[in-house]
Amino acid sequence: QAHLVESGGGLVQAGGSLRLSCTASEWNLDGYAIGWFRQAAGQEREGVSCIHSEGTTYYADSVKGRFTVSRDNAKNTVYLQINSLKGEDTGVYYCAIRRSYRNAWYYLPDYDYWGQGTQVTVTT
């Protein structure tokens, strides 16, 4: 099954920044809403942000003001800029395509074509 590809994770000190990328070789992403999720060790996957095709954005309360989601349709890429990193931001970050809009933007079962994830580790 086709899937998205995340990149840009790494090891960073608290207070630092990273820019994650999400892309696909099989589709043009510009017609899709793309969600970002993260999963810390031993915890459930949680919604971080979502961007719709027309540009509407959503953020989890824990990341508002620090994370910014954007898209560059010419590069077929969705970005997640993460600033002022905290230890609790550590985890594997995933992107996925939102297939249903009946539930809240962070409802995992509404997403498909998950990538393999990119690890973000914040040292304190």
Number of helices: 0
- Briefly note the structural class of the backbone: mainly beta
User: In terms of quaternary structure, what is this?
Assistant: single chain
Helix content: under 10%
Note the overall shape. globular
CA distance, first residue to last residue: 38 Å
- Averaged pLDDT, please? 96
SSE arrangement, N to C: EEEEEEEEEEE
Strand tally: 11
Low-confidence stretches: none
Strand content: over 45%
Largest sheet: 7 strands, mixed
C-alpha Rg (nearest Å): 13 Å
Explain how this protein is built.
By secondary structure, the chain is mostly beta strands. The protein contains no helices and 11 strands. A hairpin with a 5-residue loop joins strand 5 and strand 6 (57-59). The radius of gyration is 13 Å and the shape is globular. The N and C termini lie far apart (38 Å).
